[in-house]
Specification:
Layout: H1 7-22, H2 26-38, H3 40-62, H4 65-71, H5 73-96, H6 112-120, H7 123-137, H8 145-173, H9 175-178, H10 183-205
Helix pairs in contact: 1-8, 2-3, 2-8, 2-10, 3-6, 3-7, 3-8, 5-10
């Protein structure tokens, strides 16, 4: 079977993507929190949005948009601070949801559109997409560009969906247990703290 990528490069990509996808981050934390607070159907919409947003971002980077953002400090900074502000807002919404009855659409509203948009205000995601493009899509002859993109993009989508669905499944399995007493409040405080820690890490290293 002829692939546009050598098998060694493909295996390296799978290793990198596995680490990227399943390491806790804004997307996976939100998937778990949404499933725990509002149930699997709501979380699933967000889980489906992540790979859509990621593929659009990857396509944009492959076509040069990512390099433009990386070369413009003001634009890069605007994306960075917009992403941090959104994570802080989400963390405060989580902190205000103390029971399943309060975790309604007004308190924790992150649907498909918001899930797609979140990818574009995550400066770390832009840098990761640039790394994937530079490492596995643009190297090689020009005629290999589109075949490589057509191979890499579905891989990224599958991993993004699988990782977020896994975290959402874990959050959903905890939903019944969290409904007892003030367990959900404690859970949401932990998730909010992790989102805040992620925001600090992104602000410090991006």
């Amino acid at each position: 079977m002829n692939l546009p990528l050598p098998w060694t490069d493909l295996l390296a990509l799978l290793g990198v993507v596995t680490a990227m996808a399943f390491t806790p981050g804004p997307n996976t934390l939100l998937s778990a929190a949404l499933a725990a607070n509002r149930g699997w159907p709501v979380a699933l919409r967000f889980c489906l949005a992540v790979p859509v947003g990621w593929c659009l971002m990857l396509l944009g980077c492959a076509l040069g948009l990512g390099a433009l953002i990386d070369a413009q400090p003001a634009l890069r900074g605007a994306i960075k601070w917009a992403g941090l502000a959104y994570l802080l807002w989400l963390a405060t919404r989580l902190l205000r949801s103390t029971t399943l009855g309060e975790a309604d659409a007004g308190r924790l509203q992150v649907g498909f559109v918001q899930g797609v948009a979140l990818q574009f205000v995550n400066i770390k995601a832009w840098m990761a997409a640039l790394m994937v493009v530079a490492g596995w899509i643009t190297p090689g002859p020009p005629e290999a560009f589109w075949p490589r993109l057509a191979l890499v993009m579905p891989i990224m989508a599958v991993y993004a969906l699988a990782s977020n669905a896994t975290y959402a499944l874990l959050g959903g399995l905890l939903r019944g247990w969290l409904a007892q007493g003030r367990r959900l409040q404690g859970f949401n405080r932990v998730m909010a703290a992790l989102l805040l820690a992620t925001a600090v890490w992104m602000g410090w290293t991006a």
